[in-house]
Amino acid sequence: MAPSISAWDRYLDKFSALADEVGAKWCYCIAPSKELIKPDLAPFKVSDQNGLVQFLNGSRHRSKFVCPIDELKLSSSVSYWGGDTHWSSVGAAIASRDVLRYFGVPHELEPYANIEMRMQGGDLGNKLMGAYKALYPHLSYKQPYKVKHTAYRKGGNTGQLSIMQSERPDVDGTLLVSGGSSFVYMERFLAPWFKTTYFLHGTGRMDPALMREIKPTHVMLQNNSRFMIVHPDKGEFCDVAKLIDVKKLVGSEPSGLKAYDRAVDKLRSVQAVG
Fold it and tell me: What is the pTM of this model?
């Protein structure tokens, strides 16, 4: 099923105007679903005119897309793996390198340097097949500087907020990401090259109040192509409170972002009444 190009374009029209308002460069990084990269593992024939191809070619915002699908296919033996639906750290590094190139951010990222093959289980393999393990291509990438990582509202995925502070003295800029689980593989390759990185688990959906408060220099929307059939609030912006599952709220430490903490406080009042 193809994503609604018109619904996404209506949303991206509004988002582009918001990015201009806060003075941020932006891109939309799309992780191809696994069957598009390794069709031999798919239980069905993959069409050459699949939904992702239609979206990449048909959207009026296609110049903003970062989706290195051709390179991911050429390197499919290491860019994706058999234990999960997500790309490997190598695939994530390929996409991260292209995002940094798109933004013109200097970096030292080499996606094919020091690849180690490890036998391990994956999230999907563990869920569906118990002790299933497969060779995982791990990019042994060591940063000379650490990134301080703090996560808020653990216990659920959608709506979770992470803040990363790079200790590299030669970087600046603020990156705001609204992404999905694929970004978790990317964060160690991107966060070192920005002074501060904010990650909202929002699968490409953005709360304008949060973006205006952060005032990022760079914004990356991120999603897996498989989930793009779910349109961002019918072409409209979202409210952070709609992303968070009130039943999964954990922890009480405030993030320091008023737009986010207000949403959590509102949900906590609902939780208390319930």
Answer: 0.92
